[in-house]
Amino acid sequence: MKHQNALQWLIPPIFILALLAALAGMWPGDGQPYPLTTFRGEEVTVNARGLYYWDTVSSAAQMQANDLVMLTLGLPLLAISFWLAQRGSLRGRLLLAGVLGFILYTYVTMCFGAHYNALFLVYVALFSLSLFAFVLVMMSFDLAALPAHFSKKLPRRAIAGLLFFTAGFLALAWSGRILPTLAPLSLGEKGGVQGVPMLENTTSMFIQAMDLALIAPLCVLAGVLLLRRRPWGYLLAAVGLTKFLTMGVAVSLMGLNMARVGAAVSPVELILFPSLTLLNLFLALGLLRSVRPQNWSPDHSPTT
Predict the structure, then answer these.
(1) DSSP states along 81-129
(2) Contacts for 275 with CB less than 8 Å, ≥ 6 apart
(3) H helix or E strand, kind and range, residue 187
């Protein structure tokens, strides 16, 4: 089956299932949050309502912010980019790859980070569908010809700088939480075990693992290859900017929603993430404006 035909079968279910998951997450539920001391001695507040019943108030606020971004930004961009890609737009395909990267990241985290709920199989399906759709879109690019489709107006250095900054920020932010835990274990003041970070009733630092193992190295690789004008640099930078734009909006809303429900959030995060998102938006628009038109034939080979 050709890539285009395969995507016609993959994108609609992704859209429908993501719509279902986001609406279910946003649906209000009855209940009263209650305090809980975890087996590590960490004091948390369980949400006790809606789809995210067993998650903490802080985690539920973050997931609902992500649901809102999925509804208002992720799914509209998925529909628009897929429509453009089907019409032969290179910009559409670049956008589609980035949006699928956002959806893939989102539902990987939901599979492993959200407490088990009735939509677990929906999260698994979205993980699988978005993974294969993302791979197919990435395979559809003619890498050798890709650099020629970007004009000299492409802000390569600014994009690479943002990618490097993102990688450095993630590395420093997560290392600041992880490295102190490497000290010798001892009993904490509240009965918990020192050397274990606040995990919000989860089992491990799954977000940090994904960011440090995948996202930060990808940013560095994309930035270096883009500065060297290598084909993969253009592709990874385009995908990264789109993914980080949607993710930046989500993280910004997560911080605001956490502050709204009284969960702990740093004032720096409330300023830094929206600022980075605005810069990301500016550079993403600059990248898309620099793309020269390209027809996309059904077999995804460039046409003249």
Answers:
(1) HHHHHHTT-HHHHHHHHHHHHHHHHHHHHHHHHSPP-TTHHHHHHHHHH
(2) none
(3) strand 186-187
Q: How far is CA 172 from CA 71, 168, 178, 237, 241, in A?
A: 31, 6, 10, 21, 20
Cβ contact 17:129 at 8 Å: yes
Sign of CA dihedral 254, 281, 174, 124: positive
- Residue 197 corresponds to which tokens in the numbers above? 């970070």
Tell me how far apart the alpha carbons of residues 108 and 111 are, in angstroms, rounded to a whole number.
5
Cβ atoms within 10 A of the Cβ of 92, count? Answer: 20
Distance, in Å, from the CA atom of 197 to the CA atom of 200, rounded to the nearest integer, reads 9
Which carries the bigger pLDDT value, residue 172 or residue 256? 172
Residue 282 CA to residue 255 CA, distance in Å, equals 22
Q: What is the pLDDT of residues 52-72, one digit of tens each?
A: 999 988 888 889 989 999 999
